[in-house]
């Protein structure tokens, strides 16, 4: 019977070893997505991070998203007042897009689900073809893709205003060496994270699962920020 005990001990050692490896892997995964105490601030298209205290005077005068006036899928006018005391994630899309937009919309939907009961967190998607994406078109798009009214705004409006917001306020494009004008189509997979004071606090690849996981963690960091 001694050999049975030896086999049992070996099996136990193997099982314990496997459990240890799994725990180590989980610890590494958790560390990979660990939240920072505070997120950096951004104020230009290179997205060079600025590490400021959220309560500092420098943070108070740092770059913010200017006011705007657009219309959502319900036909309601939305402005910065709509997002007062809100953390929001924003992107740029168009309803007839056959390429990256469906995946971006799917990932924004997942973010909506992750914060579905959190009134502090909302979402804003700007149409880059506002002449085509009328209120009825956006309302139908919202219905198809599970967009919750007043939780996730699909915005249309003046094309110049939308493009200026994208390029000069959110810095959503990555083509730093290629100056753009209004005749150049605005198309990007980036999601931008905005805090309650309208500062840019992160940029994320809206097509990348790991980037979306990091965005969720960063939203939690902003919620914990004083």
Quickly list its features.
single chain; 226 residues; alpha/beta; Glutaredoxin; five-stranded mixed β-sheet; two-stranded antiparallel sheet; 6 helices; 7 strands; 15% strand; globular
Summarize the structure.
The protein has 2 domains: 1-32; 57-224, Glutaredoxin. The termini are far apart. It has 226 residues and is an alpha/beta fold.
Write the layout of secondary structure elements.
Layout: H1 2-32, H2 57-60, E1 70-71, E2 77-78, E3 87-93, H3 101-114, E4 121-127, H4 135-145, E5 152-155, H5 159-169, E6 190-194, E7 200-205, H6 209-224
Parallel strand pairs: 3-4, 4-5
Antiparallel strand pairs: 1-2, 3-6, 6-7
What do you see in this structure?
The chain has 226 residues and is of the alpha/beta class. The chain has six helices and seven strands; from the N terminus they run H-H-E-E-E-H-E-H-E-H-E-E-H. The chain folds into two domains: 1-32; 57-224, 3-Layer(aba) Sandwich (Glutaredoxin), CATH 3.40.30.10. Residues 2-7 and 12-34 have low confidence and may be disordered.
Helix-strand makeup class: alpha/beta
- The fraction of residues in strands falls at 5-15%
Percent helix = 25-40%
Compute the average pLDDT.
Answer: 86
Say how many strands there are. Answer: 7
* CATH architectural designation of the largest domain: 3-Layer(aba) Sandwich
Strand order of the largest sheet: 5-4-3-6-7
- CATH fold node name of the largest domain: Glutaredoxin
Count the helices. How many? 6
- The best one-word shape is globular
- Determine Rg (CA atoms, Å): 22 Å
CATH top level of the largest domain?
Alpha Beta
- Could you give the order of the helices and strands? HHEEEHEHEHEEH
> Termini distance?
65 Å
- Can you tell me the CATH superfamily of the largest domain? Glutaredoxin
Describe the sheet with the most strands. Answer: 5 strands, mixed
Count of the domains: 2
Which residue ranges are poorly predicted, with pLDDT under 50 across at least 5 consecutive positions? 2-7, 12-34
